[in-house]
Amino acid sequence: MTPSLDIRALIFDLDGVLTDTAEFHYLAWKRMADEEGIPFTRQDNEALRGVSRRESLARILKGRPIEEPVAQVWMTRKNDYYQAYLEGITPADILPGIPQLLDSAKATGLGLGVASASRNARGVLERLGLTHYFDAIGDGYCVANTKPAPDLFVWVAGRLDVHPDQAVVFEDAEAGIDAALAGGFHAVGVGRSPVGHAHLVFQNTSDITLDRVFDGLSQAAARTSRE
Ligand code: B16
Ligand code: MG
Fold this sequence. Notes:
Layout: E1 9-12, H1 22-36, H2 42-46, H3 53-61, H4 68-86, H5 98-108, E2 111-115, H6 121-128, E3 136-138, H7 151-160, E4 167-171, H8 174-183, E5 186-190, E6 200-202, H9 210-226
Parallel strand pairs: 1-2, 1-4, 2-3, 4-5, 5-6
Helix pairs in contact: 1-4
Bound molecules: 1,6-di-O-phosphono-beta-D-glucopyranose and magnesium ion.
Residues 13-16, 25, 48-53, 56, 79, 116-120, 140, 173 line the site of 1,6-di-O-phosphono-beta-D-glucopyranose.
């Protein structure tokens, strides 16, 4: 028998799911790294998806020691560069299919949340014109332990008044899928990063519809119950 799902909310990662700011993060870190003579490539940048600003710096440094006050100065500088790029963001930068997905979820009565590791998340949502869709917005200020810890998703689910197994998380990052699975959420991977351990994966946001999500998650739950 196919287990029936009781989905009441959708929780979206921001960077890489609602919009694609990874290039801006890359350009800002790259400028800072070049100024400090630290090698940093686009490929290195892929490992920074979904992880906090401090963890991003640690991964860029690859074990090279740094005094904490210096780390704080470098991160502030990178964030200044990043925020200059964000000034150019408009609703045209929402990824394809996302407005339709949010509209159909709203019409169906699902709760909607954002769970982003970014401390710039609220500003980005405002620039995209998406803030009004969401009943709960969790960002890099809300919890101490960021992805891959499940804390941020659990925080948003609490605000939406749903249990993790009543919520679907959409994530583009390995750390984000790890976090969703650790929290007991239904996990949907988006894009080409290592998200294959999600319950369901869409290569492009334009492919995501509510019917496909519910069908795909039902099939994943049926597979699990047979194992
Ligand atoms: P900030 P998400 C994450 O956002 C980004 O994917 C990640 O690359 C970034 O380091 C992190 O936010 C922190 O961002 O420096 O703006 O606080 O994918 O969780 O929406
Ligand atoms: Mg992301």
